[in-house]
Specification:
The chain is of the alpha+beta class and 69 residues long. It is built from 1 helix and 4 strands. It has a 4-stranded mixed β-sheet, with no helix packed on it. β3 and β4 form a beta hairpin.
C-alpha cells in the first residue's frame, strides 16, 4: 500500500458512519483501526485493518517500513 493509497482510503471512508483511526508503527486492536507494525518474530512490517468486531486482518507485509505507506 503506497502512502497515497492510504490517504485516499482514509479520505474515501471519512463520510461513512464508522471512522478509522490510523496507527503508525503500532499494533492496536481498536474497532476500525488501520495501520502497520513490526512483527519482530518474522522481521517484517505488517499492514492491518481491524473490523467492527475487533478482528485483525492483515492486508500486506513488507521487509522495510517504507513499503507500508
Amino acid at each position: 500500500m503506497a502512502k497515497q493509497e492510504l490517504l485516499d482510503f482514509l479520505k474515501f471512508n471519512r463520510n461513512k458512519p464508522r471512522y478509522y483511526t490510523a496507527y503508525l508503527n503500532k499494533k492496536f486492536l481498536e474497532q476500525f483501526a488501520i495501520g502497520y507494525y513490526q512483527d519482530l518474530s518474522a522481521n517484517r512490517f505488517i499492514v492491518y485493518e481491524v473490523t467492527e468486531r475487533q478482528q485483525l486482518h492483515e492486508k500486506a507485509s513488507f521487509e522495510r517500513e517504507k513499503g507500508c505507506y
